[in-house]
Amino acid sequence: MSNVEQDPQELVCEAGEPARELVSGHQVALGGPRAMTVTRTLPAVGRRMVGAWCFVDRYGPETAAMSVPPHPHTGLQTVTWLLSGEVLHRDSVGSLQQVRPGQLNLMTAGRGISHSEESPEMELHGVQLWVALPEQARHVAPGLEHHADLPVARGPSYEARVVMGSFGGVSSPATTYTPLVGAEVVVDGVAELPLEPGFEHAVLTLDGSPVVDGDALPVGPLLYLGQGRSSLPVSGRGRLLLIGGAPFEEQIVMWWNFVGRSHEEIEAFRKEWTEGALFGTVTGFDGDPLRAPALPTARLKPRGRVR
To answer: Where is the Pirin C-terminal domain (predicted)?
Structure first.
């Protein structure tokens, strides 16, 4: 999935360490003015990353068509997770993959890839996330993993499908490059979710009206929980997305659909998308690729999680 804004701002990945913070997010049109609107909770003004997770869009449930033209990515992994609907993924390494609810589509951009996403008009509900790749992995070969059958961790009053990393002693088969967790958790009753104390965590309600850490967490905002927790009390009935990971300490630049390390690198990525062949060609999409927006007049600065 793409950041389709035509006047994108520099996405500065930095954050402090409050123990609890509600991030409201903002609305972004996805796939053109006639398509759906997503709620983007990462990156935000005060909260830029949760572990290596650096981008969170939630959309639906909404009846809409999705058509995101071919566009480039570098230095990240994209995670597509659906609750309803179907999305057709095409990419420049030759993948053609239909994504359905409960299935993980994990695209590793590495040194460079392009892809498109399409869906006919139907009810769509899901999340799109990005994971920043660390220095030693950000130039890996691009590729796609599709995991249709993910493992489940169970405890009193909860069931968690482990999308990325490990949760509750259960590990996903998906490839990761930093210690992290991503899980869809269904709660019905009073539950205590196990957490890794060395990770920072955040929770997003996907549906229902659960109580998280003592307060109702409505659909929409992201609840950041900081580090140092070994468990998280949740009650009521609902479906949650839990993300977390070891704090990402490298300085990075996020702009448009690129994750890099300097203004010059982002500038080179943009030029390559406009004029070169690094990102390959997506075949089968009926339409033109996305045009790269103009770079901002100010220099893009690499930044850490703490200002």
So the answer is: 191-277
Instruction: Give the model's pLDDT for residue 254.
Output: 95
Let me know how long the chain is. Answer: 307
Give the residue ranges of the annotated binding site. Answer: 71, 73, 115, 117
The residues that bridge with 118 in the sheet, in sequence order, are 67, 88
Sequence-separated (6 or more) residues with CB below 8 Å from residue 286: none
Pick out the residues of the known binding site for Fe cation: 71, 73, 115, 117
pTM summary value: 0.92
Query: 15 pLDDT exceeds 70?
Result: no
| Domain 21-245 classification at class level | mainly beta
User: Residue 92's pLDDT is what?
Assistant: 98
Residue 34: exposed, middle, or buried by beta-carbon count in 10 A (0-12, 13-18, 19+)? exposed
- Burial state string for 263-283 with b = 16 or more CB within 10 A and e = fewer than 16: bebbbbbbebbeeeebbbebe
pLDDT in tens, 129-158: 999 999 999 999 999 999 999 999 999 999
Mean pLDDT calculated for residue range 13-39 = 70
Q: Any idea where the domains of the chain sit in the sequence?
A: 21-245
